[in-house]
């Protein structure tokens, strides 16, 4: 049985685990290094995994940003060397093991496909939290694309003259659906409101809060249906702090009932939680 030293590098937290056959054998976490250079990320990954590397057959890294041919780009981190940085090569030289790197949402998609809610189905994974990420599995293959952009449903443009997204583009789905956008939309009604506050106010019957969440769910449901028209997915697996917030998946399922059967997609919740990226990355060939 192959054992993999797996990492999940997020904006605030980095996880490290030994994984075998979809199971976490042991795990540790640290706050993600605050730095403006990718080299510091390499050192954090190496130091976290150094004591476990002799127990592993290979290394796998799930990370925020885009991955192309073993190179990493992380525009949201504003790194001075963060464009097509040779992350896989750097880590291979340090660990002396084969290293695979993949986008974190794509890794989570593969984890849910292999061991979670999307088993054996052509699927879309969507994580809705501060932002909106995603990954695609089609005909039993994780689809990443040449530049690593495949599956990034949050950056489908729904209004070319709309709100500015964190990626710099206008009118991305993320700018209307994400936790950050939900909080932003609430400010005129509840200054200082967090996404959690909006869900609480909606549960208390506040129409403005229910409308904000309905807009988020409606737009995401439409985007999921549009993905079906291109890739004929069978299921959409939803994760993330917003995606798994009480009542949100129910709203998505209710909105999906409005779609014609041809464009309808089964919606279900992710089951691997925060370990999906680790398990998925470790399970890639």
Your description of this structure?
There is one protein chain. With 285 residues, the protein is an alpha/beta fold. The chain has two domains: 4-107 and 275-283, Nucleotidyltransferase, domain 5; 118-269, 2-Layer Sandwich (Nucleotidyltransferase, domain 5). The chain has helices spanning 38-49, 87-95, 104-115, 174-177, 179-186, 195-203, 207-231, 248-256, 276-283; strands at 4-9, 13-20, 23-31, 58-63, 66-68, 71-73, 99-103, 123-128, 132-138, 141-143, 235-239, 266-269. It has a five-stranded mixed beta sheet, with helices on both faces. It has a five-stranded mixed beta sheet with strand order 10-9-8-11-12, sandwiched between helices. The chain has a two-stranded antiparallel sheet with strand order 5-6. Strand 5 (66-68) and strand 6 (71-73) form a beta hairpin. 45% of the residues are buried.
Features:
single chain, alpha/beta, Nucleotidyltransferase, domain 5, 2 domains, 9 helices, globular
Biggest sheet architecture: 5 strands, mixed
Low-confidence stretches: none
Q: Approximately what portion of the residues adopt beta-strand conformation? A: 15-25%
Q: Would you give the CATH topology of the largest domain? A: Nucleotidyltransferase, domain 5
Look at the structure and give the mean pLDDT: 95
